[in-house]
Amino acid sequence: MFMHNKRLQYTVRVGETNPALASLLLEQFGGPDGELAAAMRYFTQGIGEDDPGRKDMLLDIATEELSHLEVIGSIVAMLTKGAKGELAEAAKDEADLYASLNAGGNSHTLSILYGGGPALTNSSGVPWTAAYIDSRGDPTCDLRSNIAAESRAKIIYERLINITDDPGIKEALGFLMTREIAHQKSFEKALYTIQDNFPPGKLPGIEKFANIYVNTSQGPGDMEGPWNSGPQWERIDDLERVMSIDGGDGQASVELASDELETLQQLAARTKSNADDDPETGVDLGAGPGAGRITDRDCGGAADIQDAADQAKTMKIAAE
Ligand code: MN
Ligand code: MN
Question: How many CA atoms lie within 13 A of 180 on its CB side?
Answer without folding.
Answer: 26
